[in-house]
Amino acid sequence: MTGLDRLLAALAEVHPLDRGALPVAALMNTVVPYRRYRRQLGISSIEEYELLVLRLCAGEGGYGRLDPGELVVGCREALDNPAPGIDMVPGLLEAQLFILRYPDLLEGTETALADTGPELDSDSPPASPTPSDLPLPLSNDAGGLEEKEAAPLLELPDPEDDPPEHSHPPDPAPGPAVSPSFEALQRPEPGKCPGCSIPLPSVEWLRFCPGCGTEIGPVRCPGCRDEVAPGWRHCPRCGHQLGAGGEFV
C-alpha cells in the first residue's frame, strides 16, 4: 500500500463518496490532520504529508478532481520541484476537492483500517476506561465459567485523616473541693486507745485511757463544738487550732 493509498484509506473512514466536495483546508486541518494521522499514514514530517495532498489534488490515480481545475497544473508543477509544498500553489487551500473513488484494495479491508484508528494528539490526555469496559470477575462453577458481579469494596479510612484527640473519654472537669464531713474522717480502731493504742478495758464508765490518760469519750472543738478526734491539731470544720493529743489550745 502506497502513501497515497493510506491517505485515501484514512479519508474513506470519515468522508463517504456521497458527501460531496471537500475543501482542501478542511482536509488538512480537521478531516485527516497530520498530527493525528501521521502514524497511520506512515510519515514523520509535514513535508511528506503535503506531498501526499499535492498528489491527490493533482489527480494521481484518478481518485480526485479539483475545482477550479486550473489549480491541477499548479499542483503538478509543484510536484516537479525538489521540495514541493502547498504554498507553491496559491489558492489551493480554498479549492474544493471531489473524491471520485477509493482504491479497490480498500474493499473488504474497511474494518481492519477502522480498528487501527487515528493517532491521538500528543497534547490530549489518555481516555480513562469506563466501568463497562472493565472485566467482571469469573467464578468456576460446575456448569462452566460464568460472570459474576464484583463484590463492593470496603471503604477504608483515609490514613491522612487527623487521629482523634482522645483515645478514651476525657476526664470530667474537677468540681469545687468539698470538705469531708466529720463522720467520713478516720476513727481510731475500736477497743484501743487513740493516743497510745493499748487495749482498753470493756467497761461502761471508761472515760480516760489507763495508759496515757487520753480522754476516750467524744472530744469537741471549743470553737464550733463539733466532735473532733484525739491527736488532731486543727478542727476540720472551723479550723480552730487544737493541741497535741487532742488537747485544746
Short descriptors:
249 residues; 2 domains; 6 helices; 7 strands; alpha+beta; two-stranded antiparallel sheet; three-stranded antiparallel beta sheet; rod-shaped
Task: Give a quick account of the main beta sheet: strands, pairing sense, barrel closure.
Answer: 3 strands, antiparallel
Beta-strand fraction estimate: 5-15%
Please trace the helix and strand order, writing H or E for each element. HEHHHEHEHEEEE
Q: What's the N-to-C terminus distance?
A: 126 Å
Percentage of helical residues? 10-25%
Number of strands: 7
How many domains make up the coordinates? 2
Inertia-based shape = rod-shaped
**Compute the gyration radius: what is it?**
54 Å
Low-pLDDT regions? 108-117, 138-148, 176-187
Separate helix tally: 6
Question: Strand sequence of the main sheet, in spatial order?
Answer: 1-3-2
The assigned structural class equals alpha+beta
- The chain-level mean pLDDT equals 74
Detailed description of the structure:
- The chain is α+β, with helices and mostly antiparallel strands and 249 residues long.
- It has two domains: 3-116, no CATH class; 184-249, no CATH class.
- Helix content is 22%, strand content 9%.
- It is built from six helices and seven strands; from the N terminus they run αβαααβαβαββββ.
- The chain has helices at residues 3-14, 24-31, 34-41, 46-57, 71-79, 110-116, and strands at residues 22-23, 64-67, 96-99, 138-141, 144-147, 219-220, 227-228.
- Strands 1-3-2 form a three-stranded antiparallel beta sheet. Strands 4-5 form a two-stranded antiparallel ribbon.
- The longest helix has 12 residues, at 3-14.
- It is rod-shaped and about 145 Å long.
- The model is unreliable at 108-117, 138-148 and 176-187 (pLDDT under 50).
